[in-house]
Amino acid sequence: VTDRLPAWVKAEGGKLVLIPERAKLVKRIFKMAGSGYGTPSIVAKLNREGVPAIGKTGRWVKGYVGKILRDRRAVGEYQP
Questions:
Q1: What's 1's DSSP letter?
Q2: Are 57 and 39 in contact (CB under 8 A)?
Q3: In three state form, how does the secondary structure of 35-63 look?
């Protein structure tokens, strides 16, 4: 199961632990979306500010930000 953790969580000593700087980014993305920013605007803002991406591509893209916003694990839900 730990091979499929979201980018803001890591396995450490057999436990799941938040990666603080990444969890903060996920919270920021949700706040931006809640304030009316669309996915393209969120991506543009993060890239413009030079915020390090947490996905596999090394840069913020619409697909990944959209995936974060739809991911139920971001709100603490896990369904194996």
A1: -
A2: no
A3: CCCCHHHHHHHHHHCCCCCCCCCCCCCHH
In residues, how long is the chain? 80
Digitized pLDDT (tens) for each residue of the chain, 80 residues in all: 556 788 899 989 988 899 999 999 999 999 999 999 999 999 999 999 999 999 788 899 999 999 999 988 888 887 66
Q: Of all helices (H) and strands (E), which one includes residue 69?
A: helix 62-70
Instruction: Report the predicted TM-score, pTM, of the whole model to 2 decimal places.
Output: 0.88
Q: Which long-range contacts (CB under 8 A, 24 or more apart) does 28-37 make?
A: 29/65, 29/68, 29/69, 30/69, 30/74, 33/69
Q: Give the tokens for residue 44.
A: 């543009």
Q: Structure tokens of 2?
A: 């730990």
Which residue, chain included where needed, has tokens 């913020």?
A: 60
